[in-house]
Specification:
The complex is a heterodimer of chains A (85) and B (570). Chain A has 85 residues and is mostly helical. Chain A is 56% helix and 2% strand. Chain B has 20 helices and 3 strands. Chain B is mostly helical and 570 residues long. Chain B has a two-stranded antiparallel sheet with strand order 1-2. Classes of the chains: A mainly alpha (85), B mainly alpha (570).
Chain lengths: 85, 570
């Protein structure tokens, strides 16, 4: 459905602004990695002190989660009225 | 003031008055009840109060200590917020049910013995199901029935375990139980159903999204947290809980990613948060128990806030399916903002409440060198940001504009959400007051540079993963669908098996009765044939043949006699 024609324009309606946000996120992530160069993190497990560990873990955990969930849909997904039939 | 009067009665009997009060007075009364009960809790001393003798047993109606008070405070806060949120609702039954439900959960938390616990436990079940039935939708009746069967089943396990525990120990006192015997196992199953352990969890995803917009807010606060309280009281340090909790923290997030009903997404993410708490209880160190109950406290507020925002969307937009929503920030900016605060809290962003509570549990897992659990909790932390932190606000309020334009949430809903959002930030910025309420002294600093950096990296890179997956269109779209979960076994498989047994029975019965009636007809025909002139029965018989038959009979009798006797002496 398209938005009503008389609707007011919002900042997020402009794709340019959305890509600004997207770039901003990359910059924040870059900064967080950069800080890791200077800060000695205290961790309970030795391997977690590796440079950028938590960033990499978060990124790959989410990608793996989504890819796995997508495959799960093939097995688990049914029509909305599945239990009503 | 002595604490002999059970605090639960304030809400339960107070609720009974609601139908008789007119408009404004009724609203004032509903708001006053949790406040009165709260003031009462502040006034009474620690200790065992309200003890009554029954059948040679001492029942303790009011056990006041740090653990019960913490849950008492948060339950009353949740009751107050839920009442404010539901203030515009005209349905008296929902108001009464909600307050009786809150009151019985409160009673269960202060119960000092297993019998009192059981009575309140069952009262939470029967009062809360009314909030599901009050939706009066096409699925409400069946969903409510499945929900209440699970809840009552949990009560039956608790009762059976309590009676065995009584026989074994001679006491009904509700203190540490442990898993050393059958009684402990039965009670653990009873608590486990309420806490939504794996394979006992589907009542939660089934019922919460089916309740009324305001009813779900009540539901989200009490039942599962009562389970967590009971586990913390009875099973702290039970190793098995670490693994059960780890599993709970992990598997629901896969479902949350592909679920379309946004309130059901929240139910899955609630299951995942309960997993963190169960892990904390299983680890059982002071830090871990503190973390588990602090997280229950924080979760009641932020999960309540998220359910409030989604309830407001359901009320105003008329649907809560991700596939049909989007762009609602234009119509409901306040609701969107409050939802984002709830999302940041559940994702444990620094300066939000989830950060100061969840990190205690994850740290406790690290200190005790539970490597696998620690890794999975980290995965679950990233995952919860993904599906609750981003997915919920994104698909409801942003994403592609669905073109839906509606009114902002009613003012009372905004007030409730505003207070909850304020508390989420307040606890996150100043965890001190919450830490002071915890059962053990707190020696934990959540805001270290290293911890904040680690958490921000985890979360921001999860967000990056989401945006990359969206950009590349790899992210699975929201689709109108249901996903099969464990409830398939009792909602589809068991009825199908029962049906096929029924069919088999019917076919066998029909076949048998056909064959039998054919035989009967044959017999009748044969008899009738003999009754005709010249037939067997109407023929005249010579007397000699009769004598012959009598002789045959006597011989047979003699034979049987000898055989029988011979056997008897052998």
């Amino acid at each position: 459905m398209t938005p009503p024609a008389d609707s007011k324009k919002y900042w997020l309606d402009d794709p340019l602004n959305v890509s600004k946000l997207f770039k901003g996120l990359w910059i924040v992530c870059g900064l967080l990695i950069a800080i890791d160069l200077f800060l000695h993190r205290h961790e309970d497990f030795e391997f977690a002190t590796v440079f950028g560990f938590h960033g990499a873990y978060g990124f790959f955990a989410c990608v793996a989660l989504v890819l796995a969930a997508k495959q799960l849909r093939r097995i688990l997904m049914r029509d909305e009225d599945y239990y009503d039939r | 003031m002595t604490g002999n009067f059970p605090v639960a009665f304030v809400l339960i009997f107070g609720a009974a008055l609601i139908p008789f009060l007119p408009g404004l007075l009724r609203k004032a009364w509903m708001l006053a009840l949790p406040v009165i009960a709260f003031a009462y809790l502040l006034a009474i001393p620690h200790g065992l109060h309200g003890q009554v003798e029954l059948l040679g047993q001492t029942l303790t109606l009011m056990r006041v200590d740090k653990l019960s008070l913490l849950f008492g405070y948060i339950f009353l806060l949740a009751a107050l917020l839920s009442v404010i949120y539901a203030l515009h609702v005209d349905d008296t039954m929902q108001h009464v049910a909600g307050l009786v439900y809150a009151g019985s959960a409160l009673g269960a938390v202060f119960a000092g013995d297993l019998m009192t616990l059981f009575l309140y436990w069952e009262l939470t079940a029967v009062s809360s199901v009314l909030l599901v039935w009050a939706r009066r939708g096409e699925h409400s009746a069946a969903t409510g029935m499945r929900y209440v069967i699970w809840q009552l089943l949990s009560g039956m396990f608790l009762l059976a375990g309590a009676l065995l525990h009584w026989r074994a120990t001679g006491s009904l006192e509700f203190s540490h139980i442990g898993l050393s015997n059958t009684a402990g196992l039965l009670i653990l199953i009873g608590f486990g159903i309420k806490s939504a352990f794996p394979f006992m969890h589907n009542w939660l995803m089934d019922a919460y999204p089916e309740a009324t917009p305001t009813g779900t807010v009540f539901l989200s606060a009490f039942t599962t947290k009562l389970g967590i309280y009971a586990l913390a009281r009875g099973f702290a340090g039970t190793e098995e809980l670490v693994w059960i909790g780890t599993l709970m923290a992990a598997f629901p997030i896969f479902y949350a990613v592909i679920e379309n009903d946004l309130r059901r997404v929240l139910a899955y993410s609630m299951n995942n948060q309960l997993g963190f708490m169960v892990v904390g209880i299983g680890i059982g160190t002071e830090l871990a128990i503190n973390g588990a109950v602090a997280h229950a406290f924080a979760d009641i507020i932020f999960k309540g806030l998220l359910f409030m925002s989604m309830g407001a969307v359901l009320l105003r937009a008329g649907t809560i399916k991700g596939s049909e929503l989007g762009g609602l920030y234009k119509s409901m900016p306040w609701t969107a903002g409050f939802c984002i605060v709830g999302a940041a809290s559940i994702s444990a962003f620094p300066l939000f409440s989830g950060f100061v509570s969840k990190s205690m549990i994850v740290s406790a897992a690290g200190y005790e060198a539970h490597l696998v659990t620690w890794g999975i909790l980290l995965f679950a932390s990233a995952g919860v940001f993904h599906h609750s932190g981003i997915k919920i606000p994104y698909f409801a309020f942003f994403a592609h504009d669905s073109g839906k334009r509606c009114a902002e949430a009613p003012r009372n809903m905004l007030v409730a959400m505003g207070i909850a959002a304020f508390l989420c930030i307040g606890i996150g910025v100043m965890p001190g007051p919450l830490y002071a309420l915890l059962p053990y002294p707190v020696d934990y600093a959540p805001y270290t540079a290293s911890h904040v950096l680690a958490q921000l990296q985890l979360l921001m890179f999860s967000a990056l993963a989401f945006s990359v997956l969206m950009w590349t269109r790899i992210y699975p779209p929201e689709l109108r669908s249901v996903n099969l979960d464990f409830d398939w076994f009792y909602r589809a498989a068991a009825p199908a098996i029962a049906r096929s047994f029924g069919d088999a029975f019917r076919i066998t019965r029909e076949g048998l009765s056909e064959a039998l009636s054919a035989r009967m007809q044959g017999l009748v025909d044969a008899v009738m044939r003999q009754r005709r002139p010249g037939g067997l029965l109407l023929r005249s018989w010579p007397t000699g043949s009769m004598a012959l038959w009598v002789m045959v009979m006597l011989l047979a009798y003699l034979l049987f006699y000898y055989v029988g006797n011979g056997n008897g002496h052998a």
